[in-house]
Amino acid sequence: RLSGSDAMPVVGAVTGSKRERDCFAAASPDLDLRCSGASPARAETLAKTLADRGCAGLLSIGLAGALDPALHPGDVVLSSTIIAPDGAKVPASEAWRDRIAADLEGAGIRFRIGAIAGLDELVRLAETKRALFSGTGAVAVDMESHAVMRIAAAAGLPFLSVRVIADSATDEVPRAAASALNAEGGVAVFRLLGALLMRPRDIAGMTMLARRSTKGFEMLRRIALLGSLLRPV
C-alpha cells in the first residue's frame, strides 16, 4: 500500500484498543492502523497482514504498565529491546528510535529509552511487576509488542514500540480489566459489567485505572503528531 502524500510504503501499526487507535487515526492518516483487542495472537496475525501488504516498518503503539518505579502515568517509553515471554531479547530499530526521540525532545516531551517486556496476559499485581523488573530489567510491559516484534524480525522490517505508561509499578490493576475489551478492541460493556457485579470491589480500581489512562491517551494524541513515526528508514 502506498501513501497518497509521498508515494512511499506506509508504516503499519498495531494497538491494543480502539481508543488507542483513535488517538492516531486522524493525526496520522499514513499509518496503517490495526487493533488487536489486547490479544497477542491477534496482534501477531495483524502484524503479518501489514508485513504482507508491504509496509515500510512496524510499530507497536499504545499504553503500557510501568515496571520501573521511576515511571509514572503519562510518561513515554521508547523501546531499546523487546523481551519476549520466553526471555528472548530482540533490539528495536535504533535509527527510528533516535528520530522519534529527537522529535519528542523538540516537542518538550520527556521520554525514557528502555527494554519493554511482552507478556501474553495482563500484569495485574505490584508484586508481579517488581519480579519482572528485577528479573528482566525491563522498564515497562505490554501485550502486543513481542507479537509484533516477531513478525518484524521474520520479515526483516524496522520495528519500534512506542508506549505511554497507564499504571505505575505500585498500582494494582483490577481483575475486571481483563474483561474490558472485545476482540475488536472496543469496550465489552456487558462482560465488563458482569465482572464488576461479581467483584464490586474492582469498581474503585477501574475508576483509578481510567483516571490514570486519561493521561496516557492525552500523551498518545501528542505523539501522533510526530512526523518521525512515518520514517522508519
Describe it.
The structure is a single chain. With 233 residues, the chain is α/β, with parallel strands linked by helices. The chain is built from 7 helices and 8 strands; from the N terminus they run E-H-E-H-E-E-E-H-E-H-E-H-E-H-H. Strands 3-7-6-4-8 form a 5-stranded mixed β-barrel, surrounded by 5 helices. Helix 1 (18-25) packs parallel to helix 7 and helix 2 runs parallel beside helix 5.
Helical residue percent band: 25-40%
Number of strands: 8
Spans of at least 5 consecutive residues with low confidence:
1-7
| Assembly state (oligomeric) | single chain
Q: What share of the residues does DSSP label as strand, in percent?
A: 15-25%
The helix-strand sequence is: EHEHEEEHEHEHEHH
Number of helices, counting only DSSP H or I runs of 4 residues or more: 7
Structure summarized in a few sentences:
With 233 residues, this protein is α/β, with parallel strands linked by helices. It has seven helices and eight strands; from the N terminus they run E-H-E-H-E-E-E-H-E-H-E-H-E-H-H.
Secondary structure layout plus pairing:
Elements: E1 11-15, H1 18-25, E2 31-35, H2 40-52, E3 58-66, E4 76-83, E5 89-91, H3 94-106, E6 111-118, H4 126-136, E7 140-142, H5 145-155, E8 159-167, H6 189-198, H7 202-223
Parallel strand pairs: 1-2, 1-3, 3-8, 4-6, 6-7
Antiparallel strand pairs: 3-7, 4-5, 4-8
